[in-house]
Amino acid sequence: MFKQIIFFTLIFTLVLSLGAADYRAGDTITIREGDTLDTDLFSGCRILDIHGIVDGDVFSGCERMTVEGYVTDDVLTGCRVLTVTGTVGDNVIGFARTIIIDGEVFGDVIAFGGELRITERAKIHGNVYTGVGDLRFEGGSIGGFLRGGAGDANLQGHVGGDVDLEVGDIYFGPDYFAKKGTRLKTHKPIEDYEIKYLPKDLEVEVAHKEMFFATAFFFWSLLSFLIAGMVIVALFKNFSKDYLTFAKSQVGKNIGYGVLLFLLTPLAIVILAVLILTIPISLIILAGYLVLVYLSMAFSALFIGDYIMSFFRKELTNSGLFLSMLIGVILVTVLIYIPFIGGLFGFIIVCFGMGSLVNYIWNLKQASSSVEG
User: Fold this and answer.
1) What is the pLDDT of the chain when averaged over all its residues?
2) Cα–Cα distance between 267 and 249 in angstroms, integer?
3) Nearest to residue 300, comparing CAs of 332, 323, 322?
4) Where are the alpha helices (DSSP H) in 192-278?
5) What angle, 0 to 180 degrees and rounded to 10, lies between the N-to-C axes of helices 318-336 and 279-309?
6) What is the rounded radius of gyration, in angstroms, for the C-alpha atoms of the chain?
7) Cα–Cα distance between 151 and 82 in angstroms, integer?
């Protein structure tokens, strides 16, 4: 239920934010100290630095995002590194390799990725929901609950609600305190951990979890994805070669464009569905969007496989395309099934493929229009 609430809250927020917004793209976008942006900010860039005030929401796809100033509403981003040292007036929703909360957040923090750090200076008034490889709650305070999962969890701060986590490895610091109790789901008895400070009200559930690569669904996903990828390469050999050349030249920018496209397309679908008369159009766009998501994964797989193969060959051949797709499909399928951080890998893979594919097709169209003109 919690995930559904997050999803519909996010969609509702996006719908309300569409009307008045500032759309920016480029290498580096900076809101300077002393400057105030009076609308929501949608950005696709490599670096986004906010030193001033954004009086609204921030939606960003970038390599690095830093909030040193003040964002009055939500921050939603897909990036490599997100750092909040300033103030966010509502929620922080991040898909990133590293998320650092070192300031004040008045809403919830929803974090998916490689690492979430909540420092000693951090003050989160709402809840924290996380799915990361490494959770480091180094101090500070969380007003609500802390829930989700982590490969490694280091807990040392104060939580106003309860803590409910699925963890691989766990460590409690001497200053750790959860007002409404601590519940853990682990894959080995708590006695097997070397823990010096155990909370008095700790509850532990030991659950055996089947590895993702031992399930029938994993192998079905791998095989079906591989067949689809091979068919794409067989039908579009020249297109695939040209796409790879284009995608290599604008990696960061393509990810940024992909994040915005990934988020804004469902928004458009929701708006068209709400208008009733345009429901058929919304269904057509939805079908196209789902196809685009799958194609994005396939072309990202091709890109990843080609990048690896580039270390072992001098030039790309037709047979090399098939081998690149094979390697890429295996890697992508494994990455998205990794516990806790697989969602982040899937998000980045889809966004890169979507941004690079749509950007490449757009450039082809522009080049064709120039020739005809």
Assistant:
1) 84
2) 29
3) 332
4) 216-235, 237-249, 251-274
5) 110
6) 22
7) 20
The single-letter code of the amino acid at 352 is F
Cα separation of 368 and 278, whole Å? 31
Q: Which of 244-248, 306-310, 334-338 has the lowest mean pLDDT?
A: 334-338
| Confidence class for position 203, pLDDT limits 50, 70, 90 | confident
Q: Are 125 and 109 in contact (CB under 8 A)?
A: no
Exposure letters 200-215 (e unless 16+ CB within 10 A, then b): eebebeeeeeeebeee
**% of the chain residues with pLDDT over 70:** 90
Residue 208: predicted pLDDT: 65
DSSP code string of 109-177: EEEEEEEEEE-TT-EESS-EEEEEEEEEE-SSEESS-EEEEEEEEEE-SEESS-EEEEEEEEEE-TT-E
Amino acid at 166: E
Q: In what order do the strands lie in the sheet with 177-178?
A: 36-37, 53-54, 70-71, 87-88, 104-105, 123-124, 141-142, 158-159, 177-178
C-beta of residue 120 within 8 angstroms of C-beta of residue 137: no
Residue 93 phi/psi, 5-degree rounding, is -120, 110
What is the DSSP secondary structure assignment for residue 212, as one 8-state letter?
Answer: G
This prediction's pTM: 0.70
Q: How many CB atoms are located within 10 Å of the residue 113 CB? A: 28
Rounded to the nearest 5 percent, the helix, strand and coil shares of the chain are 45, 30, 25
